[in-house]
Each structure stands twice: as structure tokens, then as C-alpha cells.
Amino acid sequence: MILGCFFKYVLHRLGFVTGCFFEFICKSEILTKGNKMKLEYNDFVHPKHFDYFVAAAKECKCHILVRKTGRASLIWVGRPGYTGKRADLKAKTSDHNGGQFPIAGLVCSPFLCPQAFTADRLGKARELWVGNARLITTPNNNTGFDDTRAIPFSACRTPYIVQTKRGHKHYGCVALVEMGLLTPRYVHGDYDLFAILPEGKPFDAKKVNPVKLTLGSSMTPGTMTLPERLRFSDDNLVESDEGPLTFRVGTYINNRIAATSTDVLGALMVNHGEAINRKMDEDEDRYQPVLAFMPKPVNGQEARILSGKTEHEQYYYNA
Q1: pLDDT per residue as tens digits for the range 145-183
Q2: Can you give 208-237 as a three-state secondary structure string?
Q3: Alpha-carbon distance 164 to 141, whole Å?
Q4: What is the DSSP letter of 19?
Q5: Which helix or strand (DSSP H or E) is residue 195 part of?
Q6: 123 Cβ contact partners less than 8 Å away, ≥ 6 residues apart
Q7: Which SS3 state, helix, strand or coil, does residue 149 take?
Q8: pLDDT in tens, 174-208
Q9: In the chain, what are the domains?
Q10: What are the CA-CA distances from residue 151 to residues 158, 170, 224, 229, 252 (Å)?
């Protein structure tokens, strides 16, 4: 297996520690946002990973707030042939299946599969897709590619490729191939950390001073010329705003997942800094539902769901 395709930031996170799965008891919390929405812990993290987040919060003495990942994406986590979304890929995961085909939760083309997106997300999905077009090859045919073997560099000179085979179960979905260096792996959502709060002091998001890291691909095919390599590296740099605990928390969680994973690529689920560290888009909710993991149990609970400005701000103050 070729392991050099990961981002430099993620490469540091490759390591294996002993670990085991624990029985996960599904807990839920009804949100007060009009009493219309009910979220459970496994809307945010995979049940088998719940205890890894609990352990990370205790080990790093912090509160870890995770954005909603969605069950549609989480059902693909840990399966051979699938991987979490890297920091370079901004394209959206789909909301619905494509008719009879299972594509919900996977990154897919909003142009080939517009029906896979809700009406309120389709426009943004298309905007982000166009912005990522330089990273994704969309074959101009209906034969697609064989996802059981590596694709020749001559057929794909980008990190990602779209499955265009009509009738394929993942028609329209994006696979990571790293310019032909990897067997295709379809891309699902990763863990998007919202914030990491140090234990024992009130948290003020306005006083966070993140470090801006530049991430880039660390691997290119041997057939690439030097000018091509340099151009590819410059064109595919992405920024990640990271706090003092980002690297430690992400490394811990990824290592725990990797210890029980059959595929290292599939184990990399925390791939960038927290959302609260960067300037959020206008349509992003600063007080969106998040699952907060605590360094110490409170009333017997190791995590709780926050929703709305009041719950967020009270939690920050009591951190």
C-alpha cells in the first residue's frame, strides 16, 4: 500500500496504539429549536468511535465539540473502499440516494446527481463543486472506471475522479485515486470539529489565536515532470486554522481509529482545524447543534448535545 498520498499535516497522525471497541449505548437529547428536531449522539460520531472521543477529552484535558456528520455518511465509515473527506476537498456529500443506488452520505456531483441534494443545499453544492473542479476528473463517457484496481495516471491526472458508469451503484460519486497511485476509495464525510475548549476556564471564541497551517499533497506519480510536480504542489495548497490542541486531539482520535481499522486511509477522520477558528461563511450557524465531549462526566454524562446561542454560551462560560 502506498501511504505517501496524505497531507503533510495528516502524515504526522499515522501511528497505531492498542485499543478496543466498547459497547455504545445510544443516547439522545431533544433540541428545543421548535421541538421539530431530534438528534442523537450517533448523528455526530460513529458508535464505535464514541469512546475514542471521550478518551481524547480526558487525555487532552479539554472539551471537544463535533459538528453533525450525519448517519448517511457514518454508515460508510470503516468499510473497505471508502475514506473520509480530506481538507482539500470542499465538495458536498449527498443528502439522498440516487434512486435505487446508495449514494447518500458520499461526495457526489451535484450536476450528474442533482436529485441527491435537498433544494436548500443544491446551489451551494454546485458552487463548491465548480471551485474544486481542478481536483476532480469527470470522464467524458458512460463507462466510468473499475473501482477494484488503480487507474492509470494517463486516465486521471487529479487526486479525485467521478464514477460515470451508468448503472453503477455509486454513479456520480467521487473516489480518491491520487492520480492513479491508489485503488479508488469513495469519499464520505469526515469528523468536522467545531471547537476545542481547554478545561477549567471560560472560553471566548473572540480571543482564539489560531495558527494558520498550509497543507499540501505529499505524493505525485513518478511520470510527472518536475515543472508539473511544482505546479501541482502550488495549485493544491489549502489552509487550516488550528488551535493549541488541534494536532494532539486529532492525532489521538485518528490513532485510536487506526488501531482497529483494516485500512489506514479509512482511519483518517479528523483532517483539519476547528470551524470556530476560521471566519465562517455567512450561511453557517455559529450556534449550530454540536456534540460536546467533556473531560469529566457531568451528572453521569460524558457528552451532551448543544443547540442554540444560550446553550453554547453557557457551556463556554462553564468550561
Answers
A1: 999 999 988 889 889 999 999 999 999 999 999 888 889
A2: CCCEEEEECECCCCCCCCHHHHHHHHHHCC
A3: 7
A4: -
A5: strand 193-198
A6: none
A7: coil
A8: 999 988 888 999 999 999 999 999 999 899 877 88
A9: 1-69+190-319 (3.30.70.1720), 82-189 (no CATH)
A10: 11, 17, 15, 19, 33
